[in-house]
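Appendix B, record 7
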Amino acid sequence: MHNLILNWRILTEVVILWFVIYQIMLFFEGRSALQVLRGITILVFAFFIFQKFDFLVLNWLLKKLFGISVIALLIIFHPEIRQGLAQLGKRKFFKNNLNEEETGLAIKQIAEACENLAKNKLGGLIAIKKNDSLASYIQSGEIVDSRISANLIQAIFTPNNPLHDGGLIIQDERIAAASCILPLTTNQELSRVFGTRHRAALGLSEETDAIVIVVSEERCDISIIYRKRFYKDLSKLELESKIKHLIEIENEE
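Structure tokens (predicted):
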């Protein structure tokens, strides 16, 4: 009986440990500190193995290493720790269903802005967050934190506006930031016809599940890039329909 209780305790601890590690990995996904975190995770498991098999010298070395690395971790992860603590207080552990009317209105505003940009031969790059974090890209730009408005989106991408370069990021049905630096794709097979905005959109779609909209100022057309797939020459109605469809995929997942 005692052994059975002990085994259940060990199993419970392992499950909790894996859950915590998984949540930490999700939080740091897309951040520069992720590789460091993975290395630390490997060291932690190595520490447990060394203790299990009584490797005295290796166990002693890792204990000393962990003692020194506490300060290093605080320095390396300072931005992430600060942001994580700030988000923890406002995090919703149970995701509410999206208000379809509000979501539909937001999509219409985005589509209207893209249509007007294309008509006026202005370029635009808009990323809509789904599941994967875009926090590091948001931090690279200027925080806006505003409701979604077609007029505001058009104003941001108007030439000579300080924020018109880079990408605009939307999350939680709000404009989170503008003038964000997005990663350029390394795909050498991409046609030379596509400019920097398309390459940045494809690059972001390679690293995240964001819905990325590109308005081309040269061809005056609208495209969506999602999970490295192109949906080209979209009309306003087609753009609305495609965004809704991709959001529904998110809800089903």
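Remarks on this record: DSSP finds nine helices and seven strands in the chain. The first strand starts at residue 124 and ends at 128.
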